[in-house]
Structure formats: structure tokens, C-alpha cells
Write a structure and sequence with these properties.
- The complex is a heterodimer of chains A (about 700) and B (about 110).
- Chain A has about 700 residues and is of the alpha+beta class.
- Chain A folds into 3 domains: about 1-270, no CATH class; about 275-435, GAF domain (Beta-Lactamase); about 455-695, PPM-type phosphatase domain (Phosphatase 2c, domain 1, 4-Layer Sandwich).
- In chain A, about 50% of the residues lie in helices and about 15% in strands.
- Chain A has helices at about 1-25, 40-60, 70-100, 110-140, 145-165, 170-190, 200-230, 240-265, 275-290, 295-310, 340-355, 410-455, 505-520, 540-550, 635, 645-660, 665-675; strands at about 315-320, 335, 360-365, 380-390, 395-400, 465-475, 480-490, 490-500, 560-565, 570-580, 585, 590-595, 620, 625-630, 685-695.
- In chain A, the strands form 3 sheets. Chain A has a 5-stranded antiparallel beta sheet, sandwiched between helices. A 5-stranded antiparallel beta sheet of chain A has the order 6-15-14-11-12. A 5-stranded antiparallel beta sheet of chain A has the order 7-8-9-10-13, covered by helices on one side.
- In chain B, about 40% of the residues lie in helices and about 35% in strands.
- A 5-stranded mixed beta sheet of chain B has the order 1-2-3-4-5, sandwiched between helices.
- With about 110 residues, chain B is of the alpha/beta class.
- In chain B, strand 4, helix 3 (about 85-95) and strand 5 form a beta-alpha-beta unit.
- The radius of gyration of chain B is 13 Å and the shape is globular.
- Classes of the chains: A alpha+beta (about 700), B alpha/beta (about 110).
- Chains A and B meet through loops of A and helix 2 and helix 3 of B.
């Protein structure tokens, strides 16, 4: 560490100079260590100057105390150091008084001289500490120009060390002019109190107390030095007046100015201007976000705000592709004054910097950096901020400044606020986007439900020999149950009911398909010789339907269906059951309720020619007053709160209670009972219930 | 809601027994489908399904068996169900699957089937 070695050398130089100064002071009036007495004045001034220069340079090479600390800890540290130095001064004075009382026998000038030299050293140390804390405060959010001005101030102070050595013959007025000029420079620099704007009310009180303390210590030392000059017992050479006066003047004046600004919130210079600019950019950022613009606009707003507020010399916002972006595209990065070569440098090195998941990476000393190297431009400091939420990486913001130590904690906290706000708004945008997508899906589902609604026969066939009543309820938006009627010539009626396995849109699709198959198969065959052969019989219907479904039904899906062909003139009906629920029947002559228990395999289970063997035609002669109840498993498998199924038995019982009523009343009676059974429970399957009641033929008209 | 059915495979020489425990519906059907999809299943001569603890089967559950029916037949693997509760058997019966699949009352009958 070169900095460390430099510090050690400076401390050694300071110690050497101080020893020389001590010996020189002791030599006033008598000989020391066998050397001639009264060492020349220039040697003492040189020793003093050398000591002051070493101590100041030592303080100068220490890292900026503000980096990594707040204002108050820095002030507090200065206060404690001042307190220790002042305590040492007081102890020295007590020792001197003890020596005066002859409790410590020492020759003549010795006590006063030693005490004076030590105290002078303490004072110079205090001055150096104070001055460099003030430097960090002056430089806080300062422009590069201000940093140059400070350098000039330091050089002039250093030059003042040489004043006493060489220019002591200079005319008085010139000295006054130069010293006044330097003083005014100090006053100008004291105007830079921007840090005060960043203190909270409570911190201000503490800052005032700490500054008062530091001011007190400085004044104590100044009072002592004033007394020492008139001390007759002390044979000391003149001090480095010009330097000490100027340095103390600045130290005291900056403290006083800071106090005034803190106390009265004086709007000195641009104390509050920057703060306001930051608040304004944050507001702008929030506004853009609230307008719910595109992600690109949000990135642009963040970028502009960050670059402006931080006064970055160059910047780069690498935007990562998002799932909502079109596939394969990578959003263009956003740049500010960044050479393509340097962008490539960042592109290569930034991912590694953020690999350990740090919220931000700051390098305030790029020329000596191990992490970011190879820039074409002489950048001094860099800040790297990832934009990420817990679930998403949105991108990386990199800001570069030419000066070193360009990013202080305040800058980072502002940047952090910006990035947090940005991530929030990006997430918000994504939520809005997702909501829109899901809204669209819902809309489409609603349309599907409407389409399916249209597929349900609106106009029930009516005739004087039967009554039909229907009820259908889907568990979701769209269902897998279907039914249809077709009134055929010659007082015949075709009835189809069915249930597609599975739920949702897939099932709904197949219901539409079944309707299509039904109407296609029920076209009259013009080649049929007999009128009865114009339409397929139920078994044939099922075989054809199974064939049609073979190529489009998923392997694990199947369809159950029952198909009835009722012939009024024949006074009977034929039907086939393809795995569908057994038909419930009220036999008016036997006055008996029973199920048609017949065999029959569901559609889509066997997909070769063998299906025909598993489905049969059944025939039944009906009588007026007979009732047929056709339904889907949503009815008999309806559950109650304790998980019991409604069941075939209860359904049969309901028909037994209501067979004498009209089809509509029977239907209502059954469905009320089913609803009562699974009261307060969500529908877990689609329900369809058809009731057909045969009537004695009424003469028409 | 996780799968509410457990499938335990009990391999023997030429027979694999799958013990079903719980309700076989759309969510638990995946578990059974994974089991039936395993290539080594086709090494056996017979796959016996113990339905004693199968309390419910939905159409999605039936779909799993239906979708594997052809594949097992083509590989000459016999699928035999036994110990089936009446309620579950009714579901097989209504759909007409009892005419396609071997469903026997007891394990002994399943062994000899």
C-alpha cells in the first residue's frame, strides 16, 4: 500500500522536524548537547514549517472521511480528537505550573520551552485534522472546479509557510494584501456548506454542538498561543505566523459559517439547489411511472434522472430482455457519452462485479482498480447498480465520473431510490400487462361460452304427442355436456345427449364437434329404398360417430352418449347407449320406475373396426303417460357437504314422486332436489337433465 | 391441492401389481399415468391393479387406463383389475369398460386370470 508507506514517511519527517524544533527552542539562551547556543532563526522556522507541512500532508493523504461514513460520525471523530488534544494542552499547562512551583527542578527556560513546543505541535495537529475534515465537507458534491480551487488554496497555504523565511523584508502593505486575499479566499471556500442540506433536524442539533466544541478547542489553543507570545519566561522564536493565522482563520471561519447555515438554514450558495433538483427528478420519475408508459420510457426516465442528478460524465444502461419482449430481440442499451470501446469494457466486466448479488458496486479509485480496468477514457470513479426485484433481472445501470471519489453515500442513496422506484414501476407494468393478457383470455372464454350457448337448441321440438323439458348448467364458463334434438319427417324425433370427458375449452370443442356429427349423420340418405332407412339406426349412428371421433380425440379422452330415435307412428323408440348414464323410465302401465340397464361402450375408447360389437340397438314400445329422464353424470354424481353422491336411487325416487306432472314440472322437481342436496356447494361437474313425457295423441287443430 | 392418491408398485417375476390408494381424479391421474408410462412395464406379462382402496374414479382417471389399453394389448401385457369397490365398478360398467377389461373380484382370480 503506497498510501501507508507515504503516511509512515510523513510521520517520521514530522517527528524529526519536531525534535529539531525542540532542540532549537531549548538552545535559546544556552547550549544544548554541546552545540553552540542560539541556533539561527531560519533553522527553527524551517523545522516548524517542515513539521507543519508533514502533519498537513499526512492528514491530506488519509482517505476521504466521508466515504463510508455520515456527516455526524466524521464531526464526532473530529470533536473527540480535538478534545484529546485540548486535554493534553491543559495537562501540559498544569505541569508547567507545577514546575513554576519548583516541585520539578529544571534549568531556566527548559520547562516553558518544552511545553511550548509540544503545545505548538498539538495545535498544528488539531489544525490539520480540522482543515481536512472541512475539506471533505467543502468538497461534498463539489464540482471539479471547486476541487481545483481547493488545490490552489492548499498551495497558497503551503507558500505561506515560506513567508517568514524569505519574505520578511517585504513591505507591510504587500503582506497585508496577500494575507487578506488568502483570507477572502478562505471566506469564499467557507460558503460551500452543501452537506448541511442533508441533515435532519435532530442531526442539525448534534452538528451544531459538535461544531461549537471544535470551535472551542481551536479558540483554547489560540488563546494559549497568544499568552505564550507574551510569556517572559519563554525564550522562543517567532512562530510561522502567516501560515498558522491563515489556517486557523479558515478553520474557525468554516466552523462559524457552518454553524450559521445550520442554525438559520441560510440559503448560502447552492446549498439547497441540488437537493431540490434531486427531488424534482424523483417526482418526474414517479410521474412517468404513473402514466403507465412503456418499459423503454421508464428506462429512459431513470437514465436521464440519474445522469443529471449525479452529474455523471458517462453512463450506460444495459437493458436485459424480458419475457414479454418478442423472442430473440435484445433491447438496445441506453448510452450517455460512452465510447463503444468503453462500453465493451463494461459489457465484459460488469457481470462478474454483480455475480455475488450485491445491491451496488462502487469504485471510487478506478486508476488503481482491480475490478474495472481498461477504459479508453480517464475515468476516476464508477457506480454499478443492478435493477432487479426478487424474481426478475431488468438490467444494470453504470455511471462513470472523471474525478476520483465521485460517488459519496448521498449519491448512492439517491441512485438507490431511483433504481428501486424504477424496478417497482417495471414490475407494475408487467402486472398490468399480465392483467391485460388474462383479461383477454377471460374475454375469449366468455366468447366461447356464448358460442356454446348458441349450440344449445333454443327451440325445443313441439308436437301434440310429447312434451320436452330441458335443464343444463355448466360448472365452468364452458362445459363438456351436450344435447340436441331433431324433428324428422313422419312424426319422428331424434334425441342426442352426451358428455365429453375432461373439462374446459377442449371438452367444449368436442361438444361442438358432436353437434356437427349429429347433424351430418342425420341428413336423409336419398339412396335409401325404404323410408325407415333414410336415417341411420342408433347403433349405426354410434359406429359412425366413433369413427369420426377417432382422429381428433386425444387418446385419454372419450365421449359418452345416448341416442334415441322415437317414432310416434310405431309407438316406440330405438336407442343405443355408448357408455352414457342409464336412462330412467316411468312405465305408466306397470306404474313402475326403472333404469334401462343395457351394455354399450363409450365413444373414442376403441378406435378400430371392433367398436360395433360393443354397442347395441335397443327397442321399446312406449305408452302415453310414460316418462323418460335422460341426464348426465353431473346429476347422479352431485355431492353433498359430507361427500355423498346423489345417486341413481334418489333420482328414481324423485321421478316416482312426480311422474304424473308435466315434463317441465318433473324436471323442476328433480333439479330442485339435486340443488337442495348439494346446497351451498360449487357445481363440480356440468349438469344436464332432459325430461320427455309421452302423451296420448290429441287431435290436431 | 396435491394428488390425493398413492400408487405403490409391487414387482414380482412376471407380474407387476399396482396398489391404488385414494381418489383417482384429474389431479392424481398424472401419478398413475407416470407409473403406466414406464417402459419396463412392458417386460411383464401381467399388470394387476389392486383397487381395494380406490374410493373414487373420475373420467380423467378412466382416461388413463383407456389411453394405455391399446399399448398394453399390443405388447401382450394383460391388464387385470381386482378387489374393486362396487361404486367404482359401476363407473367401469356404465362406460362399458367391463367388456374390454378384465375385472375380477379377488386376488386369486386375478393371478389365474
Amino acid at each position: 500500500m503506497p498510501n501507508f508507506r507515504r503516511s509512515v514517511w510523513l510521520l517520521l519527517a514530522a517527528a524529526g522536524c519536531w525534535l529539531l524544533l525542540l532542540l532549537g527552542t531549548l538552545s535559546q539562551g544556552h547550549s544544548v548537547l554541546g552545540l553552540p547556543a542560539d541556533w539561527p532563526r531560519w533553522l527553527l522556522l524551517l523545522a516548524q514549517g517542515g513539521f507543519a507541512a508533514s502533519v498537513f500532508l499526512f492528514a491530506r493523504v488519509q482517505p476521504n472521511p466521508l466515504v463510508g461514513h455520515g456527516f455526524l460520525p466524521v464531526l464526532r471523530r473530529l470533536f473527540w480528537r480535538g478534545l484529546i488534544l485540548t486535554t493534553l494542552l491543559t495537562s501540559m499547562q498544569v505541569l508547567v505550573h507545577l514546575a513554576d512551583a519548583r516541585t520539578l527542578p529544571l534549568p531556566g527556560n527548559t520547562t516553558a520551552a518544552v511545553a511550548y513546543t509540544i503545545n505548538l505541535a498539538l495545535f498544528i495537529i488539531l489544525l490539520a485534522q480540522t482543515l481536512y475534515v472541512w475539506r471533505s465537507l467543502v468538497g461534498f458534491r463539489g464540482s471539479p472546479r471547486l476541487q481545483r480551487e481547493w488545490m490552489v488554496f492548499e498551495l497558497l497555504l503551503g507558500a505561506a509557510l515560506l513567508f517568514q523565511l524569505f519574505v520578511w523584508q517585504a513591505p507591510d502593505f504587500l503582506r497585508v494584501v496577500i494575507i487578506t486575499g488568502l483570507g477572502l479566499f478562505g471566506v469564499y471556500l467557507s460558503g460551500h456548506q452543501r452537506w448541511v442540506a442533508y441533515l435532519s433536524q435532530g442531526q442539525k442539533v448534534q452538528a451544531i454542538l459538535l461544531q461549537l466544541g471544535v470551535l472551542g478547542f481551536l479558540l483554547t489553543f489560540l488563546l494559549y498561543l497568544r499568552g505564550a507570545q507574551t510569556n517572559s519566561a519563554l525564550l522562543a522564536p517567532t512562530t510561522q505566523q502567516a501560515f498558522l493565522v491563515l489556517a486557523s482563520f479558515f478553520a474557525v471561519f468554516y466552523a462559524v459559517a457552518g454553524l450559521l447555515v445550520t442554525l438559520f438554514n441560510l440559503p448560502i450558495a447552492d446549498v439547497y439547489e441540488q437537493r431540490r433538483a434531486e427531488i424534482l427528478s424523483l417526482q418526474q420519475l414517479s410521474q412517468i411511472i404513473q402514466r403507465g408508459q412503456t418499459a423503454h420510457e421508464i428506462y429512459q426516465a431513470l437514465f436521464a434522472s440519474a445522469v443529471q442528478t449525479i452529474h455523471a460524465d458517462a453512463a450506460w444502461l444495459d437493458v436485459l430482455p424480458q419475457p414479454t419482449d418478442p423472442a430473440g430481440t435484445r433491447p438496445a442499451p441506453i448510452l450517455h457519452e460512452l465510447a463503444p470501446a468503453d462500453q465493451a469494457v463494461l459489457q465484459a466486466q460488469v457481470p462478474a462485479l454483480l455475480a455475488d448479488g450485491q445491491p451496488q458496486v462502487v469504485d471510487n479509485d478506478l486508476p488503481r482498480s482491480q475490478r474495472l480496468t481498461g477504459f479508453g477514457q480517464p475515468y476516476g470513479s464508477a457506480a454499478v447498480l443492478p435493477l432487479h426485484s426478487t424474481t426478475h433481472d431488468y438490467g444494470v445501470l453504470v455511471l462513470l465520473k472523471k474525478e476520483q471519489s465521485g460517488f459519496d453515500p448521498e449519491d448512492l442513496s439517491i441512485l438507490h431510490t431511483f433504481t428501486t422506484q424504477t424496478v417497482l414501476s417495471l414490475e407494475n407494468l408487467q402486472l398490468v400487462h399480465e392483467a391485460r393478457v388474462s383479461q383477454r383470455a377471460q374475454d375469449e372464454l366468455r366468447i366461447a361460452a356464448l358460442v356454446q350457448e348458441r349450440l344449445i337448441p333454443k327451440h325445443l321440438p313441439t308436437d301434440n304427442w310429447f312434451e320436452i323439458s330441458t335443464y343444463a348448467q355448466a360448472a365452468k364458463e364452458v362445459g363438456g355436456d351436450f344435447y340436441d334434438f331433431l324433428h324428422l319427417p313422419g312424426q319422428r324425433l331424434a334425441v342426442l345427449i352426451g358428455d365429453v370427458s375432461g373439462k374446459g375449452v377442449t371438452a367444449a370443442f368436442h361438444t361442438a364437434q358432436m353437434k356437427g356429427i349429429f347433424h351430418a349423420l342425420m341428413q336423409p340418405n336419398p339412396l335409401a329404398k325404404k323410408d325407415r332407412d333414410r336415417y341411420p339406426d342408433p347403433q349405426r349412428f354410434m359406429m359412425k360417430a366413433n369413427e369420426a371421433l377417432t382422429h381428433c380425440l386425444e387418446r385419454s379422452s372419450f365421449i359418452t352418449a345416448s341416442f334415441y330415435l322415437i317414432d310416434y307412428e310405431a309407438g316406440g323408440f330405438s336407442f343405443a347407449r355408448a357408455g352414457h348414464c342409464h336412462t330412467l323410465y316411468y312405465h305408466s302401465i306397470k306404474e313402475e320406475v326403472s333404469y334401462f340397464r343395457s351394455e354399450g361402450l363409450g365413444l373414442g375408447i376403441l378406435r378400430d373396426g371392433s367398436y360395433g360389437r360393443h354397442v347395441k340397438n335397443q327397442f321399446w314400445d312406449y305408452n302415453p303417460g310414460d316418462v323418460m329422464v335422460i341426464y348426465t353424470d353431473g346429476i347422479v354424481e352431485a355431492r353433498n357437504a359430507s361427500g355423498d353422491e346423489y345417486g341413481e336411487e334418489r333420482l328414481a325416487q324423485m321421478l316416482g314422486e312426480s311422474f304424473y306432472q308435466s315434463a317441465e314440472e318433473i324436471n323442476r322437481h328433480i333439479r330442485h332436489d339435486v340443488q337442495e342436496f348439494s346446497k351451498n356447494l360449487p357445481l363440480h361437474d356440468d349438469q344436464t337433465l332432459l325430461v320427455i313425457k309421452f302423451k296420448a295423441s290429441q287431435p290436431q287443430g | 391441492m396435491g394428488p390425493i392418491m398413492k400408487v405403490t408398485a409391487q414387482p414380482a417375476d412376471t407380474t407387476l401389481t399396482l396398489v391404488l390408494d385414494g381418489e383417482l381424479d384429474a389431479s392424481s391421474a398424472v401419478v398413475l399415468d407416470t407409473e403406466l408410462n414406464k417402459p419396463e412395464l412392458l417386460k411383464y406379462k401381467k399388470v394387476m391393479i389392486d383397487c381395494q382402496k380406490l374410493s373414487y374414479i373420475s373420467s380423467a382417471g378412466l382416461g388413463v387406463f383407456i389411453s394405455h389399453l391399446q399399448r398394453l394389448q399390443d405388447s401382450n401385457v394383460k391388464l387385470v383389475f381386482y378387489n374393486m369397490q362396487e361404486k367404482v365398478f359401476n363407473v367401469f360398467e356404465i362406460l362399458g369398460l367391463d367388456s374390454l377389461m378384465t375385472i375380477v373380484p379377488t386376488e386369486q382370480e386375478a393371478q389365474t386370470a
